[in-house]
Amino acid sequence: MKKQVFIFATLATALFTSCDDDSASQVIEEEVITTIEVTLTGGGETITLVSRDLDGDGPGLPVSVVSGNLTAGTTYTGAIVLKNETETPAEIKNPEILEKDEEHQFFYQTTGTVGTFTYTDADSNNNPIGLTFTLQTAATAGTGSITFTLRHELNKNGTGVDQGIITNAGGSTDIEVSFPVTIE
Amino acid sequence: MNKTILGAVFALFFVDFGFGQLVKTISGNVKSGGAIVENAVIYVGKKKINCDVQGTFAFTVDNSVDEFTVVAPHFEKVVQKIGSEPVQVYQFNLSPHAEDLAEIIVRKKASLVYDVSGSNKLNAKTLREYSAQNLGDALREINGVNSLKTGNNIVKPIIHGLSGSRISMLTNRLRMEDQQWGTEHAPAIDVNGLTRINVVKDAAALQYSGDGVGGLILLERQIPENDTIFSQLTSTAQSNGSGGALAATFVRAKEKGTSYRIDAAAKMFGDRRAADYVLSNTGNRDFSAAAQLRRKLKFGTLNAELSYFQTETGILAASHIGNATDLYFAIQSQKPSVVRPFTYDIANPKQQVSHLFSQLSLEEELGKWNSKWYYGYQRNNRKEFDIRRGNRDNIPALDLTLQSHSILADFKRMFQNTEVKLGISGGYQTNFANPDTGVRPIVPNFTKTDLGLYAISDLELNSTFRLESGIRYDYSRITASKFYQNSRWIERNYQSDFGQFVVFENAGELLVEPIFNYHNIAANAKVSGQISENYRIEFGATALNRNPNVSELFSDGLHHSSGIIEVGDLRLKQENAVKVALNQNLTWKASTFSLESFLQRIENFIYLQPTGFLTTIRGAFPVYEYKSTTARLFGADFSWTYRFSNRFSFKTAASYVSGYDVRESRNLIDIPPFNWHSSIVVKPFDKSDFTLELRHEYVAFQNAFPDFDFETNIVQNNELSQVTVPISRPPNAYQLFDLKASWPFQLQKTALQASLGIQNIGNQSYRNYLNKQRLFADELGRNITLQLQINI
């Protein structure tokens, strides 16, 4: 009995005193995309649409800024840059998309008066990626919104997906941001 | 005894009319501990002689035969030398087969702590039938036990409507330590190698835990107590998933000296199939091994056990979604958005889980006290691999390691008509969330220290009634270390209450190291009465507390598999549960009825409540917060078994649970719908144990569900429109038919059993409310199982 009590007590003491403090290490989230910058160049001007969400799934809301109004009846060349701005300097995430370009695609959805988007890039299967595009703005002035959606592991062979119709794309959304726009 | 004489007379009859050509007449009977042994068979060389229903046999042999063998299902075989006398009468007293015996011994021991009515246990024989499946599936055999699933392989038991960390699970006395990790974590143990499972629904076994608010599951892997040596091999093939399992056991047991047991099992499955499509990425690979050693020494019995389990499980491809819009489209599409051709490959998302379990114990008589001392060490690891960008597919998105040390001492002795049990336990646990994942972990680093003390008495009031009562004290201390985003810390308004725990601030995040202390007292009392030989009644009341687990306290972030943001709450208090249970058992003629009913009230019941929406750069996500409320549960499990004859029996069992949130005046989520199981067992042949079983399962539509549907905005036809994401409505009622045929037979001296099973005969497509993936895909379609069991 004595022996057991001794062993038990020793083990118990060991358990209760062995408080090796395992402090958490800060996780560097290299993979996250915090920022989307859309540059529209046309009609001698450059308009940028930027949305930034530094805390990701934290409660802070994304902050979106549109630099100016678009001109009616104009063809804009569009380019999208994705960044992780939790790192300094900010990391450009476009190469990660292009590396697995057949798994990614941008969709552009509009409401109100905006215009027509056309993909200008393609992956190895000749399906669109959408990091670059053209926007033919509507002929008349008005207001509307553009929603940029980046889908990952989607079905690019779904009906209408290569035409930019999101309905049958499936997959999971990596980016979904809306910008209000004015056509003048 | 009369039968023996009759047998002898019968034998003499043979001698008289045998014209002296037959040299010896052998007769006798086969019993075990005075009871008749059914279906005993005598082998004389290759000749087979069946005993009659009373276990009586008689046969003649010539001089060339010098031995015969007595074999009966569930009993150790006996090889008998034949003497030289012309008339020989034998009385065999067979020993139960090792695995059955282990069960009997366990039952005897167990009955002193709690009474497990017949329907609440699974024996080795039943468990073996589930060799290719998992523990959660096997547990569903018990009326009132359901499973909370994430797909087909991640299955957690639900007892009386409660699951997860509200269920304490123990293996050979040691608590399994991994249920803190949230709903997508199944108990890390293989069903192969287990010799018995007890489910304690009324939460009354305070010796084992003080926080099993929903109940306890006691898993046992035992070495038989008697002298025996046997090996078992079970091979199972299944059509659905085109896979199978191979399990082997070797046991060498001695009443004195050294005994050991070795178990090993492996499983492999490819994609499962629903009725109409392949469930892509639902394969799994499991491996388990266990070694046990028992040494009987002069002063006591030493037990050592080491076991290991690992699994790799694919997560249904179609369930990988992003935001609320994706969820909306996934639900709308009815069919999974990803259906690929069948493959054995497991792609991301997937889970890899491993569990190392070790235990050392010493049992010793100390004067009038029986003492048992235990030390246990467990190591759990869980890795989740997600679909990631930038060649990160091989870096786990979650990598948790939980290490637990425990020490226990149990003492018991009899004082006249009272059995007293006392005990003390201590635990030390660390959880490490690997930061190299590059994803903020859902469960933080923490250290937990536990101390428990209990005292139980089991008093025989008179020949009819027994009173069992117990009290238990538990102390837990949790020290956690977690980085909070500044924005979350502010949004939760934690600074005023927990500001003292902030260590430093860096790059928009705060390192917080909070300390929580919990003191809990649990108590129970139960009266049981064997009113007559046919009627038994138990009435018990239990008060328990459960500490909030680490996911409930610390969760903060996106849950990829469900597309929701889960937010824990540091302010959560212990759950306080009171449960009363009334169990009745009645035997009437050939029928056995059992009715178990319960009523439970839980204050500070912790659950996930949808509280709103969060817009991120990835779109909008519903936010669920861990909140506490007052829950009320009640229900009943009913079963009726009717034995028409030795050849034909019928069983029906129904289970109903109601769960209600008293404070919010709405139903609780994930409460099992009414379910009703029936089976007919037929043994068509007298001389064979061939058994045919037809099962029927009916699961009702759960109309008591909370409405957690939410609205989201999607762009349709050039317009922003608001749609409802219908996540709440449970699937429709369904019924399934299963068929099982098993044929035990003897080949020389090897006992075999071949069985064929068909699950979901009609290849029904249906969905299960308690499956987290019900929003994305149907349940499994038809499955044909072939199994061969070999006992040597």
Automatic annotation (TrEMBL), chain A:
In terms of domain of life, where is this protein from? Answer: Bacteria
This one is known as Type 1 periplasmic binding fold superfamily protein
UniProtKB/TrEMBL annotation, chain B:
Membrane topology qualifier: Multi-pass membrane protein
- Does the keyword section mention Signal? yes
One GO biological process this protein is involved in is: siderophore transmembrane transport
Give residue ranges for domain TonB-dependent receptor-like beta-barrel: 325-761
- Which keywords belong to this entry? Cell outer membrane, Membrane, Receptor, Signal, TonB box, Transmembrane, Transmembrane beta strand, Transport
Query: Where is this chain primarily localised?
Result: membrane
Its Gene Ontology cellular component terms are: cell outer membrane
Residues of the TonB-dependent receptor plug domain: 121-215
Extract one GO molecular function annotation from the record.
siderophore uptake transmembrane transporter activity
Q: Where in the cell is it found?
A: Cell outer membrane
Task: Report the Pfam families cross-referenced here.
Answer: Plug, TonB_dep_Rec_b-barrel
Origin: domain of life: Bacteria
Q: Name the protein family.
A: Belongs to the TonB-dependent receptor family.
Q: Which PANTHER family match?
A: HEMOGLOBIN AND HEMOGLOBIN-HAPTOGLOBIN-BINDING PROTEIN 1-RELATED (PTHR30069:SF29), TONB-DEPENDENT OUTER MEMBRANE RECEPTOR (PTHR30069)
Q: What is this protein called?
A: TonB-dependent receptor
Give the species this sequence originates from. Answer: Flavobacterium aurantiibacter
